[in-house]
Sequence to fold (205 residues):
Amino acid sequence: MIQRLIRRLRRDRRGATIIEFAIITPVMMLLLMGLMDMLFQQYAQSILTGAVQKAGRDSTIQGADTSAVDAKVVTMMHSLLATPSQSCPSTTATTWCSARFAYDNFTEVAPEPFTDSNNNGKCDNGEPFSDVNANGTWDANPGASGEGGAGSVALYTMTITYKHLFPVATMLGWSSTATIQASTLLKNQPYATQAVTPTITGTCP
Fold:
């Protein structure tokens, strides 16, 4: 009798689905939340990219109020920034940071070229370099802070940090915030004569 009961229990599969469901569900939920969070980040990145491109075009117009341009970008990102605040660098949730650099032309949007005689990837040991901004020192970013003048090439960058939609990142020990960034490079409208900084040759320290 007892042996028959044991054999019947061994063959009985009722309730197995519930146990399997209980084991699989948490893993599936984590995967779904992680996927949704990634998709939302891609969506936010596309919105930010479009907003920055539009803002960059607005900034190239003579007399443009750059603070108003920034405000428009932040407004377009209201789904991420319920109570936005400016903070540079943008490292905490619901903060944003904008940066503008001006160059004489598109080729200057790069580290100043230098002769790497010792092949260490650094400008040092008296190596000659092209001082694009004529400030006497080698610069990884030779751009001048700000929007620049007529005909200048302006690099506009907006960085936004927001809190993840789901707690998956925190559960995995990662940061509870995500940071996205978008940049646009445009030439200012030639509403006046452009002032070009002459390039001189310098030596690395």
In short: Helices lie at 2-11, 16-59, 66-76, 168-171.
